[in-house]
Each structure stands twice: as structure tokens, then as C-alpha cells.
Write a structure and sequence with these properties.
It is a single chain. This protein has 256 residues and is mainly alpha-helical. The chain contains twelve helices and two strands. It is 49% helix and 2% strand.
Length: 256
């Protein structure tokens, strides 16, 4: 997702979206899903610290939302696939021409592959991305009646779609909290905050699902992403300007 201003006091304005503006609702918990935050249980120290982190980040970035530009669920799906190993800023420069030429799933499914590759080339790994986008849209047309599916199980059957993409689409296109989106910022900050000891995105997601209430799973991810871009960068994090310094076990080691 793209970089914005480094000043954390005012969150960047997002482009208008056609998806719901309300907070994502909670998806039903599948029988075989990992343990999640129990809203009726006694809070652990880790949960209380995570909730305080979320509270402070919500105050810092009250308008934080997905920074990819899109108008429909399929456009968000495509943009999220393109954002792999690429900034949202770059993706947002590519998608206007892409969606002008191929605005929906049927158009993308029937696109000339060479033309599709040329349009997404600057996002990197363009051959695989174009192939996966076309295959995913073909399945959307043939198996789902042209509409992006609304369950994580169905989304994961689409080419090029893993949990990160599925979580983004469900949360921002349909308002459904099905999991915690783990990108490079969420991975880095969750480790620095000692909310996980893993480098594996699936395990990190499981660890975070135990700490954060389900209605706030995407709120958590988006705000960690904003904070990672603004202050808690991979190199030279600005711990001296961070409002989480008293909550972060890594602050002394990496920045103060």
C-alpha cells in the first residue's frame, strides 16, 4: 500500500470508494478456524497493551483506510493483486488506464494477455500478475456469476489470491472482517511490539487474532500500515516522535 506523508497527525485522504463506508462487520467463525479474541473473557496483559496501541493509533490516524484506488470489488481485487511487491502509489498510477480499458471481470477475463501484461508491467512480476488476474476473473465469471465472492474460502480459490488479498477485499469491498491483513508493515510492527515471534504471515495473523477484537481486525492492520509508513520504518524508525514508545519493548533497542 502506498506511502503517504510522514506526519502522523493527519491521515491522508483516500479516493472515493463505492464500497460500504461503515466499519467492517465480523464474519462468522468457521469451526476449524484458529482461536480468536474472546470479548467476554478476562483481558491478558498482551491484549490490554494491544488495545491501547489500537486506541492511540486510531487517534493518530482517524481517517485511515485502504489507499488503493478502486470503484468496484473486482477492481479492488485486481489492485490488491498488483500491489504485491509494489507500492500502492505505483499501482494507483497503473490502474486508471487498466480499468478504463478493462473495467470489469468479463473484460479482464477476455483481455489480450500481451496487452494486459503491458498495462501492468511497471508493477513488477507483470507476467504472473497478468496471468493470475485473467485466470481469477475467468473463474469469477464462470463460477461466481461475474461477482467477486464474499467468503474467504471462495476467494482463496482464485488465482493469485492468498489471505492478505482476500482479507483486504472482504474488509474494504464488503465490510467483512474475516482475518487480519498482514503486509510488510504489519509484520514489522507486530514483531517490534512483541505481539508475535513469527515471520510467517499466517502465524502472525493467528497471533493477532487472539489479541484484537474481531470487529477491529482491519482497523488494526490499516493503522499499523499508516504508522509503519509514517514513523516506524524498516530503517531508522522515529522512536523519538512515536506515541507508542512506552508500549513498545523494542524502542530502546532500535531507536532511543
Amino acid at each position: 500500500m502506498p506511502a503517504h506523508s510522514s506526519a502522523p497527525k493527519s491521515a491522508p485522504k483516500s479516493a472515493p470508494k463505492s464500497a460500504t463506508k461503515s466499519a467492517p462487520k465480523s464474519a462468522p467463525k468457521p469451526a476449524n478456524s484458529p482461536a480468536i479474541f474472546n470479548p467476554k473473557g478476562r483481558r491478558t496483559k498482551q491484549q490490554l497493551r494491544a488495545l491501547e496501541v489500537l486506541s492511540r493509533l486510531t487517534e493518530l490516524y482517524p481517517d485511515a483506510t485502504c489507499s488503493l484506488d478502486y470503484e468496484t470489488p473486482v477492481q479492488l481485487l485486481v489492485a490488491t493483486v498488483l500491489s504485491a511487491q509494489c507500492t500502492d502509489e505505483r499501482v494507483n498510477k497503473v490502474t486508471p488506464a487498466l480499468f478504463d480499458r478493462f473495467p470489469d471481470a468479463p473484460a479482464l477475463a477476455g483481455a489480450d494477455l500481451d496487452e494486459l501484461q503491458a498495462l501492468v508491467r511497471s508493477t513488477g512480476f507483470y507476467r504472473n500478475k497478468a496471468k493470475n488476474i485473467q485466470a481469477a476473473c475467468h473463474r469469477i465469471v464462470t463460477e461466481f456469476g461475474g461477482a467477486v465472492p464474499r467468503t474467504i474460502e471462495e476467494l482463496l480459490t482464485l488465482a493469485g489470491v492468498a489471505r492478505k488479498t482476500a482479507n483486504v477485499v472482504l474488509a474494504h469491498a464488503f465490510g467483512i472482517n474475516s482475518g487480519v491483513t498482514v503486509d510488510t508493515h504489519v509484520k514489522r510492527l507486530s514483531n517490534r511490539l512483541k505481539f508475535t515471534k513469527s515471520d510467517n504471515p499466517i502465524q502472525i495473523e493467528r497471533d493477532l487474532m487472539k489479541l484484537i477484537p474481531q470487529p477491529d481486525w482491519e482497523n488494526w492492520s490499516i493503522r499499523l500500515i499508516y504508522h509503519g509508513r509514517a514513523l516506524c520504518k524498516a530503517r531508522k524508525p522515529a522512536c523519538d516522535r512515536c506515541s507508542l514508545v512506552d508500549l513498545c519493548p523494542s524502542a530502546e533497542r532500535i531507536g532511543i
